[in-house]
Amino acid sequence: MKKLLCSALVLVISFGTSASSSHASSTLSASQISSYFQRTSLSATLADPAIIVIDRATGEVIFEKDSTSSRKPASVMKVLAATATLEFIDPELRYETRLYSGQESASLVLVGSYDPWLTNTYKEAVANKRAWIGNLIKKAIPVLKNSQGIPFKSVSIGYSGLFTKDRPLIETAFKNAGFKATFTPLSKSEVITNSKEEIATVYSPTVREMVKFAILWSDNNLANRLVLNASSVAGYGMSNLGVSMTINDAVARLEVDPTGLEIFDGSGLSKENRVTAKLVAELLQKIRDDPKFLPIYEGLPVSGVSGTLEKRYLTTAPQAVGLVHAKTGTLDGTVSLAGYVDSGDRQYIVVAIADHIHVGSVPTNAARTTIDKLFGKLAAPLISPAA
Questions:
Q1: How far apart are CA 308 and CA 329, in angstroms?
Q2: Rounded CA gap, 316 and 318, in Å?
Q3: What is the per-residue pLDDT for 120?
Q4: Which CATH class is domain 95-205?
Q5: CATH number of 28-89+210-378
Q6: pTM of the entire structure?
Q7: What digits encode the pLDDT tens for the residues 121-138?
Q8: Are 107 and 155 in contact (CB under 8 A)?
């Protein structure tokens, strides 16, 4: 019996030592991180990337390569756009779109509030539970009849608060419903005088939820429209120039060095956009500890789990599944990733921008694999010490 107890005790001690050793070896020292990142940054698959690694707790730069060079961010730009959105717009705000019958027969009044969530695509509406303009149009059809109940063949629509690209799509939706639509922009006072009875209203989710969705799924249209609205609130107007000024304003308020920042849209689709890895990393450092910007962190895709990282890391760096929270980016010739890596009781901020790679799926996938392994090398779960 004593021998059995002794054997069991040895086994427990051995297991505890093994677990402790495993935890110790699973996280890297600063010098090990620097050495590994230095070697990997020279990989031909990354084609001279810009990289930076920061210890989030201390702010210490563990490794950097060309972190102050101007690079094409691709969809990493959405992090900057989301920051500006939350800087200037109430996160609990919901946008609304109202449809009224008009004072004249065969007329409608469509009153929007530049709802970024409103979609003109039925497929997208169903897939993402988005408000669909077609539903409003369907509710208008019973109103568009003469006194004998015969539908009109044409309809006059007064409107306000719609994005420019929405109007032709709404026109097509009416055409598909059997109506020829003509449109007239209305001022606020004209909306009041031309409206008769409310037919229907649709509401967006909160800005908080829309930011999370745009970051999680890299929704170009949603991200850009949100920051256009932020630009309007900030007083810069709804234009790409306004977006640039708004994002620069938000960056300045957070006291992040804007050197190297050039902005041509809020989605990252423009190949003229430029950021530095250092700027993005400093921004990630600032917003992580500010509750105002929590929706950005909550919306970040998680390695092997959610969003645009759902199918990554599963084979490229399986040890990092669930431990990387980062925004992806892809353009022709560009692969980027920026976010946070959990490493035991630490969290690192990592930004990698490879914007000199060859165009094509093969070099793109090769760069993604290398970047996944790069981030994955840091990743380690938090293991509680034995009692």
A1: 9
A2: 6
A3: 62
A4: alpha beta
A5: 3.40.710.10
A6: 0.89
A7: 666 666 666 666 777 888
A8: yes
